[in-house]
Automatic annotation (TrEMBL):
Domain of life: Bacteria
PROSITE patterns recorded: HTH_MARR_2 (PS50995)
InterPro entries: HTH_MarR-typ, WH-like_DNA-bd_sf, WH_DNA-bd_sf
Biased composition (Basic residues): 120-131
Protein's organism: Kitasatospora cystarginea
Region of interest: Disordered: 74-131
HTH marR-type domain: residues covered: 1-73
Stated name of the protein: HTH marR-type domain-containing protein
Record lineage: Bacteria, Bacillati, Actinomycetota, Actinomycetes, Kitasatosporales
Length: 131
């Protein structure tokens, strides 16, 4: 993880700052250039998801979503060191299974909350320790 963050920082896509609460932790956050790259990638994901699910009925999309949720849960359970999946507003556990599986394009990614930008609901800020 440290080498990935170093590469992103060298490209000007993230900045790292010391944590205010832990001396061995650095907080990584996107720069303006990094956020623009994330926004472009997010738009590409929307296009891809819509093209992949265009032929599905709402019921089929709901079934696919449920199957993917179950698959993800199994992977999380089988992966050592992972934490319990979050549920609640803005996370996968709070989604309407019959709704369009991607965010509407009338809002830019910059206007979305971190949970809305990331389909897993994980925060976009990465923390790096002594790894």
């Amino acid at each position: 993880m440290a080498s990935v963050l170093t590469n992103l920082e060298a490209k000007g896509l993230i900045r790292r700052e010391p944590s205010p609460v832990h001396a061995k932790v650095q907080i990584a956050s996107p720069t303006d250039e990094g956020q623009a790259a994330l926004d472009r990638a997010y738009q590409e994901v929307i296009i891809l998801e819509r093209s992949l699910t265009a032929a599905f009925t709402p019921a089929e999309r709901a079934s696919l979503g449920e199957l993917l949720e179950r698959t993800t849960a199994v992977l999380v359970e089988q992966t050592p060191g992972t934490h319990t999946r979050r549920t609640g507003p803005g996370t996968a556990g709070d989604r309407d299974p019959t709704a369009d599986p991607v965010m509407p394009s009338d809002r830019s990614p910059a206007e979305l909350s971190p949970a809305e930008r990331c389909s897993t609901g994980r925060r976009r800020t990465a923390r790096q320790g002594d790894a």
